[in-house]
């Protein structure tokens, strides 16, 4: 990963103490989401893989989603198999072993979809290592649905990038969308009260 890309990925603000280690974790938005463009309001900025689509999981005016197709895969993070698609949501997040992160998204696909974290052994996502991909933790093919995952950062991992992936059959192209992505220190909930029937935005607290 280039120096310029690493410099765009870093986080700066809220302090989380994990196992006695202080790690700077910056919510990119006021709702506690660590991602820069989780609802695809700003096109496909801060995403690697896929391209912006007008389809929005919550029918939010002016918003959209990330359209996914396995034929769009490519470097630096893309896939090599026809039947798989991966998107990386930026920025990189510096973490510490033992930290718990909550990941979710609204997805639809003609194949299974699952979430995972790409691990890096240094701050700033400079040295990629293993990941915690587990295809058994998936949602089936179908229309819009929400997928959730909780991850505890293992020893030796100092930064991560969340990954949203779909696929399973190498002979079949993936088609679908991902929207309303979440990565946070708390689980996401509705940002607006159910009584006003607004579900376009999410937050880590009922006050939004």
From the structure above, extract its key features.
mainly beta, Jelly Rolls, seven-stranded antiparallel beta sheet, five-stranded antiparallel beta sheet, 41% strand, globular, disordered N terminus, disordered C terminus
Notes on the structure:
The structure is a single chain. With 208 residues, the protein is mainly beta. The chain has a single domain, classed as Galactose-binding domain-like (Jelly Rolls), CATH 2.60.120.260. It has one helix and 16 strands. The strands form four sheets. Strands 3, 6, 7, 9, 10, 11 and 13 form a seven-stranded antiparallel sheet that branches. Strands 4-5-14-8-12 form a five-stranded antiparallel sheet, with no helix packed on it. It has a two-stranded antiparallel sheet with strand order 1-2. It is globular and about 40 Å long. The N terminus and C terminus are likely disordered.
Q: How many domains, as an integer?
A: 1
For CATH, the homologous superfamily is named as Galactose-binding domain-like
Overall CATH architecture = Sandwich
- What would you report as the Rg, rounded to the nearest angstrom? 16 Å
Elements, N to C (H/E): HEEEEEEEEEEEEEEEE
Strand % is: 35-45%
Outline the secondary-structure elements.
Blueprint: H1 3-9, E1 14-18, E2 21-25, E3 47-48, E4 51-53, E5 65-69, E6 84-89, E7 93-94, E8 100-109, E9 113-120, E10 128-131, E11 138-139, E12 142-152, E13 159-167, E14 175-184, E15 189-190, E16 202-203
Antiparallel strand pairs: 1-2, 3-6, 4-5, 5-14, 6-13, 7-13, 8-12, 8-14, 9-10, 9-11, 9-13, 15-16
